[in-house]
Design goal:
heterodimer; A: mainly beta; 6-stranded mixed sheet; 4-stranded antiparallel sheet; 0% helix; 51% strand; globular; B: mainly beta; 11 strands; 47% strand
């Protein structure tokens, strides 16, 4: 069955430190992958996406993610975290290319220490 | 450009009451989706629509009904609310297409926080 796993429920980093959020997927066909961010009380905003081509993709707010087919992973990274990055992050895969349905991971809550 | 608008933003219901959540999009998107978000479970798909007049079940459809009478609107109904339906509900929309394309990017509303007592 198709699934997305985010192993880390909560992560705390100091402001200015680097960040990596893990995402593993299970999908038989070519995966179309996304990272979304949700600030408290807000909807979901797309950070970046991977459909094909270069496996290192750049997104908004200084985020990037690397697709590794051999590891079934799509980890999100940022070189230097800002206090405003504190939010919940969701990894997702399109579960059906005909309907565009998204399968989400459980989410990772990022806390940033001053 | 409003994008995806959900109404209401908050609602408290008693067990057994009914209500309808409205989702409206102004991007001329074909596909629309309703998700629910619960702590530790991410977002789960309730129902979706791939065009005006069409609807289909998602992962957790029980206790919900939907209608897509107009392309820009997607309604989610609870006929007899239960405490298990306490959640945050998100609507999303996309142009929709097969394969990997920017047209498959889903745009989300701000959510409706529902409590069922």
């Amino acid at each position: 069955a198709q699934s997305v796993t985010q192993p880390d429920i909560h992560i705390t980093v100091s402001e200015g430190a680097s960040l990596e959020l893990r995402c593993n997927y299970s999908y038989g066909a070519t995966p179309y992958l996304f990272w979304y961010v949700q600030s408290p009380g807000q909807g979901l905003q797309l950070l970046l996406k991977y459909f094909s081509g270069d496996t290192l993709v750049q997104g908004i707010k200084g985020f990037e993610a690397e697709f590794k087919r051999s590891q079934s992973s799509f980890n999100l990274r940022k070189p230097s975290v800002h206090w405003s990055d504190a939010a919940e992050y969701f990894c997702a895969v399109i579960g059906s290319s005909n309907t565009g349905k998204l399968i989400f991971g459980q989410g990772t809550t990022l806390q940033v220490k001053p | 450009n409003a994008g995806v608008t959900q109404t209401p933003k908050f609602r408290v219901l008693k067990t057994g009451q009914s209500m309808t959540l409205l989702c409206a999009q102004d991007m001329n998107h074909e596909y629309m989706y309703w998700y629910r978000q619960d702590p530790g479970m991410g977002l789960r798909l309730i129902h979706y629509s791939v065009g005006e007049g069409t609807t289909a079940k998602g992962e957790v459809p029980d206790g919900y009904n939907v209608s897509r009478l107009k392309k820009q609107n997607f309604l989610l109904g609870l006929e007899s609310a239960a405490p298990s339906q306490t959640s945050v509900y998100f609507c999303a929309s996309s142009y929709g297409t097969t394969g990997g394309s920017a047209k498959n990017i889903q745009y989300f509303g701000a959510g409706t926080r529902l409590s069922v007592l």
